Amino acid sequence: MLLTAVVGSAVLSAAVIVAENELEWADANGDDISSIRPDVTASFYVRDDALEKTTAGTRTFTLGTPAPAGSTFGIADGTVSGAVVTATTLTALGYNTATPASTPLSSSPVATTATGGKPFVSEFNADAGTFTLAAQAAVGVVAVTFNYHSPDVWTGTDAALRRAKVVSTSDIEGEWVTISEVLTVGTTTPASTSRLFLGTIELDDDASAAAALDGKVWVQDGNSLTVNYYNSAGDVVDSDSITVDGITPVIANVLPLNNTSISLVNPTVTFDVTDGGSGIDTTGIGIGVKVQVRRGTTLNTPAPTEAVNVSFQGIAGGVRAIFAQGLSWKTASTTAGGFGVRDSEVFEIEITASDKAGNQSISKVSITIDTLAPSLASAKTGAARTAVSVDFIDSSGDIDASTVDSDGSDFTVEGHTVTAAAIDVDNPLRVNLTLAADLAPNATPKVTVKADGVFDKAGNAAATKDVSALDGVKPAIINSDVLDKALAIKDDVVKVRVQTDERLASGWPKVSVVGPGASPMTGLVTMTRPDVVTINIGSVTAITTADVTGQYGVAIEYSDGQNTSNNLTAVTDETITIPAGGATVLALANGPVADADFDGDVDKDDITAITVTMGGVVTTSASVIASVDAGARTITLTGAADAATEVKISYNYIKDHTFEIDQTAPIVGYVPAKPADGSAVSIQDRSPFIQVKFTDDSYAGDSFKAVTLTKAELTNPDASVEDITASFVSRTSSDYLWAASSLALGDYTLKVSGTDTASNEAADDVYKFKIVERTYTVELQPGWNLVSLPDSPEKSGVNDVFGAPEIKTVVTRDRTVTGGWAIAERDASGALSGVEPAPLTTVDPAKGYWVESSGIVSVTFNVPGIAAGSLNLPPAFKLSAGWNLVSVAQPDLTNTTRDADEYFSRLDWSRAYGYDAITKKFEPILPDGQTANSLNLTVGSGYFVYLNKSGTLVP
User: Fold this and answer.
1) CATH (residue range 667-771)
2) pLDDT tens for residues 392-425?
3) CATH number for the 250-369 domain, one of 1.10.760.10, 3.30.70.2190, 2.60.40.10, 3.40.50.150?
4) Which stretches of 693-841 are DSSP H helices?
5) Can you tell me the distance from the alpha carbon of 496 to that of 481, in angstroms, rounded to the nearest whole number?
6) For residue 278, what is the enclosing H or E element?
7) Fold of 375-468
């Protein structure tokens, strides 16, 4: 319903008076105004006799017979009384022949007869457009000239005719305005002799209206709007200014408040209307309140009556309106003062207020007249075991929350103590009670509301009443041993036992076993009820070799006849990002996927929702699902989902009641890793660690990953066999470590077996390894090579390392000897001998070496390295300022490069050079941040490095 009050619709105004040589602003009704809003067409009036113009015209009469003296000639219709007119012509632009009074003659016409005479015009009628000649007119043409009035227009586009211009504070250039002669103030009817002219101009608050010759003037709130009237000499004769008011009046302090319910059938409505611009009429004269009631969009019939009991008080800047009546608003609108409001039905009071400039504001409030008390309707147990919800019926739809005691003292629940009460956040007619102790699962206690304890928002009190609560408590599974085993092996039987806290209805529980799609043991389980009425028992078919490895879930649905529950966990909008190339199979994050409809299988009907893009089309239909594998946790689509899109899937899965079948043997892995071709692993350590790592994670949800090492049989290089199972130490439930000690050089074979929790065995897996010396090989090209040793050799003699016959010369930088170089050359005996004065006899891993070779040769030597527990320290090389020839030391021989900045990190170095024996070029190396390349150093190569100051190289 809509109750409308219109304020300011009948403000009394005075008609504008326009004196000679004056102009005045006025509204469309001709009333004087002092302000105007910015989005209307403004009008003004000018009165000036000088603006009145006349127009000359001619009329010819061809007389076939003489016109006697006293004959009347009609300029308008071309007739002559007492004579025959054979032809007539009229030349008079705008002269109205149909209504000549609208274009009256301004003076006596002049007639010229065919003989050239000008007989005296004895009389003329200006409005009728007729005249009478005092003498006879002969046969022939009588030519008449006359002047007449027509509605005058002084255009604003013709510079010679401009008389009125409108400007504003914002638009000082303004616009020239066309003024037209009208009958009276307040009309637009054209007139010929009124000498009153009307001008109009469109006002616009958009700055674009400041453009010239667009017929608009740009105005803003607070502007002065001025019209100037000019005479023919361009002087201002008169002007008038009004104020632009662009601010709407303010309606405030409306009572009743919005969205309130009241029990009064004739409420008092009050509100304030203020305006800081043109203002509201502070006396309240002419302000009325008109009330009408709507239901939906249909007006009551007959028409709404005028609200007569309205009074007004002057307040700062406006008025306060007060509407009150003794008649009930529920009285039919056909009665004076009745509005036909229906009890407990929401309706609106709409207030419209206009200021003196015509700006309008509208305010609406929704209220309800409610005289009906709320009534206790029903109660239900079940949101929690200590919860009871109480529902009321109330026509207005709300219980006043402030009247509901939070300690629950307004209510009693049979057999229980109420400790708290609160209005439901989603239902304003529901009160949620909290009890001190749990309800029985099938409890239906009597619930009572006390008299005058609960009120609706209109202030109506609920009477005392009691109802029996409905059973809203869902049954619950109370036994933890629903499944008798978590892991099943061949020929096992998995028993299902469901014990609830109350007796279930006939046909319940429903039990569905789900798992890998190919398993024959999935489907509905037949449950039987023994003598104990709350226990239901069933079993899954015995496992055979046809059953599939994977995780299985037991979906259970149970009901007491009124309340149904299940053990499923819901997932909403799980997001899967489709990779490049698209995807047909989608992997879910949770499982096993549940048989949500309990029909014995898992298919597209069990997927709650899916949103997928296929072929550029987004679809939400489950028809795109081809199959669902509950155990594998996958959904297969009928086609490929588009790449780089997202699929959203909602489904249910079984979180708690699961078991697993594992018929897959574990996989054996080793550290060091076994080559793919089964060849032996070379180990340069006589006391190595050998790690056996079993993997038994063969399906989604696999929780039985432990594998027991049952066999570790070692075949030694001498073909002897020993059982070393006991020598392995368990690191995890599937990871075992053997710390070998002092192994002889040679080939070994380790045969390993392991058994998982389900008795699946990985039998006699073979791992081959051989214990070899730790060696390093330097590759030499013909000519000079710049090389180094990554670690200390077992034998450091120059012939022990570089004894190959192809090697002719070995040179290294030694600043402690004469000449700064130490040299060894091949002598006549075939051995390398030191050359005086600085003979080179031993090889140092701190230095780089120039090695000259006659051919391609590989130099291999033993590098023992530092053993665990050794009393030797890692290397550190002292270097001098200037150029040094250094090695690239590297304890881990599997690493082939070192970053130059990292390797020289403790040195103040500016440049290094390496040498490529094939290209025979030096390669510059600079620290990071400099313009040249910063390269990696190659293990086994030698490098010249320039130090700005001495330092220690710690490789």
Assistant:
1) 2.60.40.1220
2) 998 777 899 999 999 999 999 999 999 999 999 9
3) 2.60.40.10
4) 798-802
5) 8
6) none
7) Immunoglobulin-like (2.60.40)
